[in-house]
Specification:
This protein is an alpha/beta fold and 195 residues long. It is built from ten helices and five strands. Helix 2 packs antiparallel against helix 9, helix 6 (100-112) packs across helix 7 and helix 7 runs parallel beside helix 8 (150-160).
């Protein structure tokens, strides 16, 4: 299912590549790095992102085989095109030692079980909660933004050994998290490449 790319997007990528050589990245890494940079107009993501091609290959296969996609907030879900997402934030409640975002992650896990792709772009506490579950994710896109807890939650994600896309700095957010997932959605499968 080929995606029609708007001329403005084509020109944006042309300009991005004129300013930054991404040709040395493996295919899926390049797709994620470029789409994240494109979403934020921030070339620094080329050195800030932490990702692994083998993890991306497995996640790409799972995504195109229909694995569920869970998001921490509706804004991330709104940015993910061509795929339904699960967001349980409206159903969640905060309590002692539990943020609403963390509770939403628990609810989502109860709904989807293991093997999902998790896209967290807003709440560090959502990412922290995910790491306490036995979610066995296909991939965790952990790009929460902020000065409180974001860096620490992303470091914990990398230390967990789970397949992940994260970054080192405080930067992140809904747009870049959605962009990382969209890069995998838009990248053709081997069957589509043969067409």
């Amino acid at each position: 299912m080929n995606r029609v790319v708007h001329p403005i997007e084509e020109e944006s990528y042309r300009r991005l590549r004129a300013r930054l050589d991404t040709s040395h990245f493996p295919p899926l890494t390049r797709a994620v790095v470029e789409r994240v940079i494109h979403s934020a107009a921030d070339l620094d993501y080329a050195t800030d992102l932490v990702l692994d091609e083998a993890d991306l290959e497995k996640a790409h296969a799972a995504l195109h085989a229909g694995a569920p996609v869970v998001v921490d907030v509706e804004m991330v879900g709104a940015g993910i095109t061509r795929r339904e997402t699960v967001c349980r934030l409206k159903d969640a409640e905060s309590g002692p030692g539990l943020t609403r975002s963390a509770h939403a992650i628990r609810l989502a896990y109860e709904q989807v079980g293991p093997g999902a792709l998790w896209v967290i772009g807003n709440a560090p506490t959502a990412l922290e909660e995910l790491l306490t579950l036995d979610a066995r994710p296909a991939l965790v896109i952990g790009l929460p933004v902020g000065f409180v807890g974001a860096v620490e939650s992303k470091a914990a994600l990398r230390e967990s050994g789970l397949p992940a896309v994260s970054n080192v700095s405080e930067k992140g957010g809904s747009a870049v998290a959605a962009a990382a997932l969209n890069a995998l959605l838009y990248h053709p499968t081997s069957a589509e490449e043969k067409l």
